[in-house]
Amino acid sequence: MRGLLLLSTFLAAPALAQVSVEIPPPSVSAQGEVAVTIYNNDLALVQDRRQLAIPQGRSRQEFPDVSAQIRPETVTLTGDDVGIVEQNFDFDLLSPQALMQKAVGETITLVRTNPATGAETRERARVLAANGGVVLQIGPRIEVLRDDGLPVRVIFDRVPENLRARPTLSVTVQAAAAGRRPVTLTYLTPGLGWSADYVALFDESNGRMDVQGWITLTNNSGTPYVNADTLLVAGAVGPGAQNNYRRQQADALREAGTESAGRERLGDFYLYPLPERTTIANRQTKQVSFLDVHNTPAARAYEYRNAWLGTSEQPQSANTVLRFSSSRDQGLGDALPAGTVRVYQRDARGNPQFVGESGIGHTPMGSQLGLVTGQAFDVKVKPVVERRERINGTRWRTTMRYTLTNARPNAVTVDLMQSGLWGDTRITEESMPSERRSADDALWRVPVPANGEAVVTATFDTRY
């Protein structure tokens, strides 16, 4: 019967009737047809379909080339007429140091070569310790194996069973009949992850930009995945998984979109399949293009947010903001997975120069974004608390003065935001109309002339 067979370990099991081991040489992967689904939060689902010759009865099947960080409790196996008895994951990899540590208490052979004559001498030695150095007992004497430049090598009688040349999962199975059949090994593993990186070339004079999106895929799981069908999920699964993106989203996402992107979905996530199978080598970073948009509208803007009762003796730089849309019309036309947007502009010689970067969270199509890419050199704001007085036992009157200066040769508009306003705060006087963006924020869109300044004053009636 074919079904999903959870791996379970029995406290006691009869001896194996047969042992079936099919391990290719190190240059050849033992993996079969591999599919990898990678999430944003250092988690991946691996599905490895292999053809195995399984004898009748109970046998041990070896699965080399699984992830070195496999979560054994997530392993499942599917196959026709195959039952699972127990499973073991051998993650202790074969190396000279591991081999020596496993030989503690065992007897080895030391081979020394006389550098003058080339003659070899052999001695049997018992390994007493291998902690920061190797301590040996050779007959009645105790000796430390030193790296003193003399030609010495060690011969081991055997390789311990639990030392593997590569990460290996061994599964004891019970088969009703012998035969070669496909089985699919499925498990979760950390060590595989991806993010989106965006390169934006901004043409300020024409109010346009080109954007290319790259998927940056990394593999630190300890195992390569050969010719894998790779699917990327824009979203991190599990409770609280989105916390890493919330601050970025709050900073960059000015208005959430309501358009549906034409991409495949999985529940509440978007899927980004790689266009063809690829080998994801261990300790490798791979990049694949997924977005290429030209001549989309974009504009530079300036923003300054002042905390409640914020006052400054020195003018402060306004933030430089790049504004654009992810909408289908006049935008990037796609849902944007979380990542980093790096912005470039051409200088007077026509060479693109880096002018700033900002992170974005998972952004639905149709959204309005404002990326803070740096602080303006020539656009400053000086907020000052001019007067603050108590009206009665519970109310205060506060007068603010904001001086905005512009050393640029062209006029700019600065979005001046006053934060920290309570729900019952009233603006009783102001030199120009404001917008109440929320219960806590007031916004003035202040035009500042070229090589000039503008002043905004406002009086607030507050509880505190």
Report on the architecture of this protein.
The protein has 464 residues and is mostly beta strands. Among the domains are: 3-93 and 164-189, no CATH class; 96-155; 299-329 and 366-462, Immunoglobulin-like. The chain is 4% helix and 56% strand. It has helices at residues 96-102, 243-252, and strands at 3-6, 18-20, 33-38, 44-54, 57-64, 76-79, 82-90, 107-113, 120-130, 134-138, 141-145, 152-155, 168-175, 179-189, 192-203, 208-219, 225-234, 253-255, 265-266, 269-273, 278-280, 284-306, 316-325, 339-346, 352-360, 368-390, 396-406, 412-418, 426-430, 435-436, 442-448, 452-462. The strands form 4 sheets. Strands 15, 16, 18, 22, 23, 24, 25, 26, 27, 28, 29, 30, 31 and 32 form a 14-stranded mixed beta sheet that branches. The termini are far apart. Mean pLDDT is 85; it is low at 1-21 and 240-250.
Report the span from N to C terminus. Answer: 72 Å
* Beta-strand content estimate: over 45%
Regions with little confidence, pLDDT below 50 for 5+ residues = 1-21, 240-250
Structural class: mainly beta
Question: What are the salient characteristics of this protein?
Answer:
464 residues, 2 helices, Immunoglobulin-like, mainly beta, elongated
